[in-house]
Amino acid sequence: MRNAGELFEPGLFPAIDSSLDAGEFAAQYWADRAASEDSSFYGFLGGVATLWTRDTAARTSLTLIPLGGGAGAHAARPFWQYTSGTAEYTSTWLARGFGWRAPYPTGSVAASKLALPPYNSAAAVTAVRVPWYRFVWGPRIVAPQPGFGAHAVGGGLEYRLVPFGY
């Protein structure tokens, strides 16, 4: 198993060598500009450039990798489908919260926010993991559905599987 710093050994990966050379050049360039023009902005740019030099690249990459992984995990959180609890219920409409839990409590709150039809009481909620190759359209704000009754006021966020069907 390699140490993370070994990935930045000269000659191991030519593309990384080139990028480290560019980082060192940029750091020196901005340092020279900052000194000649007495500009703190150029000093800031030089500081950013020093994050990708032979001395700092390994630590910079180890710092940034968890941030990218966290964004990926957040994007992979589940969608949710509210149903009346019957197994035969199918729909292309989904909801999604900002975290890993369903966005609305089951029952009248979900039925109201999602403007569900009268036959869907939202008594149950199921996590739906959409395969990576399926397109999900949305979000959009749920429009009121007066034809479904006074409870269907909308205002929540909804998504839809495309092509329609699941």
Question: What's the SSE blueprint?
Answer:
Layout: H1 14-37, H2 40-49, H3 57-75, E1 79-83, E2 93-94, H4 108-113, E3 124-128, E4 135-141, E5 157-162
Helix pairs in contact: 1-2
- Rg is 26 Å
Helix and strand succession?
HHHEEHEEE
What general outline do the C-alpha atoms trace? elongated
Count of the domains: 2
Oligomer: single chain
Say how many strands there are.
5
Give a quick account of the main beta sheet: strands, pairing sense, barrel closure: 3 strands, antiparallel
Q: Which residues sit in consecutive blocks of at least 5 with pLDDT less than 50? A: none
Approximate helicity band:
25-40%
The rounded distance between the terminal residues' Cα atoms is 43 Å
Question: Roughly what is the average pLDDT, rounded to an integer?
Answer: 85
- Structure annotation, total helices: 4
The chain-level structural class is alpha+beta
Taken as a percent bin, the fraction of beta residues is 15-25%
Major sheet: order of its strands? 2-5-4
Explain what you see:
The chain folds into two domains: 4-74; 79-162, no CATH class. 36% of the residues lie in helices and 15% in strands. It has helices spanning 14-37, 40-49, 57-75, 108-113; strands spanning 79-83, 93-94, 124-128, 135-141, 157-162. It is elongated. It starts with 13 loop residues before the first helix and ends with a strand.
Short description:
The protein has 2 domains: 71 residues; 84 residues, no CATH class.
Could you name the key traits of this structure?
elongated, about 170 residues, single chain, 3-stranded antiparallel sheet, about 35% helix
